[in-house]
Amino acid sequence: MSQKVEKGSRKRKAGEPDKMTIGKVKREMRSVKRLLAKVEFYHQQSYKKTKRKLEMLENKCTQLKNAKVSDRYKMVRFFEKRKLFRKLKQASKCHGSDSSETQEI
After folding, report:
1. Rounded mean pLDDT of 25-38?
2. Single pTM value for the model
3. Which of 25, 38, 97, 103 has its CA 20 to 30 Å from the CA of residue 64?
4. Cβ contacts of residue 29 below 8 Å, gap of 6+?
5. Rounded distance between C-alpha atoms, residue 35 and residue 50, angstroms
6. Can you give 22-53 as a three-state secondary structure string?
């Protein structure tokens, strides 16, 4: 009999790094904000450490968002580049064998 494996139930190996996603970072940011919002959270050294962690998480979140946007349009840029080279090749065939101009571009 085959057992069904639930999605996300794969255990991480010891040497495998934990992949940070935007959702994980946002969840951790919320928990840190809740911790900072507690009234009885007075220990100064711990407060500073937690505040630094929150700043680090905010920076990580913006980095992940920027990476996601750039990856999203990577394929589009690739196809646009191919279209431009195809048009350049067609133009060079129409105007004859002026290979010196196409090599400059």
Report:
1. 88
2. 0.50
3. 38
4. 54, 57, 58, 61
5. 8
6. HHHHHHHHHHHHHHHHCCCCCCHHHHHHHHHH
